[in-house]
Design goal:
By secondary structure, the protein is mainly beta. The chain has one helix at about 115-120, and strands spanning about 15, 20-25, 40-45, 50-55, 60-65, 65-70, 75-80, 85, 95-100, 105-115, 125-130.
Length: about 140
């Protein structure tokens, strides 16, 4: 109840991960500083495509900019700005990857994930393919 109510986007920066270029608006490391602990909120910036991975689902993604599609267990689902992407909860997880359809304009979506939900579905993640800009370090 005493934590931050407003988080300024300008105070956060993008970082390249195995999945994508991500900007964490709320990260686990911030939970003791924010008014809504246990939430992870991040922006995914996609030029070409994200990494491919499997997890149990239960993730809500809101498209901020651009147009593209998400492949969920081999099925293509197109989306555009202002759409909501819902990754289904499935035993054993859902394999998925996100693609940008406009090479001249990156797309972005914001993800919302609640820790108690992740724990309830025994969330785990398995990396299948890394983002094209990821540089593996030792």
């Amino acid at each position: 109840a005493q934590g931050m109510v407003i988080i300024k986007g300008k105070d956060k920066s993008f970082k390249q991960t195995r999945q994508a270029l991500l900007k964490y608006m709320i990260h686990q490391a911030d939970w003791d500083k924010v008014a809504v602990p246990d939430w992870s909120v991040f922006i995914n910036h996609i030029k070409v495509h994200s990494g491919k991975h499997v997890h149990q689902g239960g993730l809500v993604l809101y498209v901020l900019e651009g147009r593209g599609y998400t492949v969920v267990d081999g099925v293509k689902f197109p989306w555009k700005k202002n759409d909501l992407i819902l990754l289904p909860i499935k035993p054993g997880g859902v394999e998925h990857q996100h693609f940008n359809e406009d090479p001249d304009q990156p797309c972005e979506w914001m993800a919302f994930s609640f820790k108690p939900m992740r724990e309830a579905i025994a969330h785990r993640m398995e990396q299948k393919e890394e983002h094209p800009d990821w540089i593996k370090t030792k």
